[in-house]
Amino acid sequence: MIGFFIALISGALMSIQGVFNTQVTKSSSIWVASAFVQFTALLVCLAAWLVSDRSSFAALLKVEPRYMLLGGAIGAFITYTVIKGMEMLGPARAVMLIVIAQLIVAYVIELLGLFGTEKQPLEWRKVIGMGIAVAGVVIFKWK
After folding, report:
1. What angle in degrees, to the nearest 10, is found between the helix axes of 30-48 and 71-89?
2. pLDDT band at residue 4 under the 50/70/90 scheme
3. Which pLDDT tens digit goes with each residue over 106-140?
4. Are 31 and 61 found together in one domain?
5. Cβ–Cβ contacts within 10 Å for residue 25, how many?
6. 67, 88, 109 - which closes a domain
7. Per-residue pLDDT averaged across 12-35, rounded?
8. Do 78 and 32 share a structural domain?
9. How far is residue 127 from each of residues 94, 98, 101, 121, 131, measured CA to CA in Å?
10. How far is it, in rounded angstroms, from Cα 134 to Cα 69?
11. d(C-alpha 63, C-alpha 68), whole Å
12. Are 64 and 26 in the same domain?
């Protein structure tokens, strides 16, 4: 149950962050805003590491396959695309499309067993649920 609430908090924070970052780009540029976001995230992570974890950064050298270390680089492009999406579509529409894209890609990753995940069988109820979500975006966007 706690995972459910953590996921809800994550979604809420992502939406708030997207709005904040989009506003910051109005006074700077998208890459300055993205760099600032990533830099402040680094500072928060280092502070949290100092007070709670203290595991060795050398453990990163043991990560296999190596491409798994690209999460931070992907994060920079996530920040960019969220800012641009919210700027062009508004927060509600952008977030709906972002969430649906996350859902579809995550399900494909599970179906194919990509990136070290356990392969899952196709379940039509999940496909229908994604179809309903897409229909929801169409209804939401309908003028």
Report:
1. 130
2. confident
3. 999 999 999 999 999 999 999 999 999 889 888 88
4. yes
5. 18
6. 88
7. 92
8. yes
9. 22, 17, 13, 12, 6
10. 32
11. 7
12. yes
Global pTM value: 0.83
Question: How far is CA 30 from its chain centroid?
Answer: 17
State the alpha helices, DSSP H only, in 26-123: 30-48, 71-89, 91-112
- What pLDDT digit, counting tens, does each position of 8-23 carry? 899 899 999 999 999 9
CA separation for the pair 130, 33 (Å, rounded): 33
Tokens 């899952």, residue located:
120
Q: Structural domain of residue 58, as residue ranges? A: 1-88
Of 7, 38, 24, 22, the C-alpha closest to 106 is 7
